[in-house]
Give the backbone structure.
Amino acid sequence: MTERLLKAAQNEIINIVTIFLGLTVGLKLSYKYFLTPQTLLIVALGMLAFVVATAAGVLMAKFMNLFSKNKINPLIGSAGVSAVPMAARVSQVEGQKADSSNFLLMHAMGPNVAGVIGSALAAGYFIAALT
């Protein structure tokens, strides 16, 4: 019973809650206020930042491996974005696709949480600088 509930909470329930949250927020918005060039630019910049941060994390891990005795799995670097816990889960899944003995989730959560802290610090800096 507990395993079924856990599986449902990780999959179906979270999807239903996400859909309802999107619907309730979406019903309050009008397209002429939301779908503006400025909003689309912000979304595009966010996507670009996500791609650049993921690639930079992988490349930095590969760069660190050039000088380190203990090698770092580059997938750990890709988890350094602040998409908790999905970035860490993606690192885990992709790592296990390559080698079924990889268990990266707990190791990937460290840079994942560090990405959240870095995002909060950057946001605080920008808010302070712009006000």
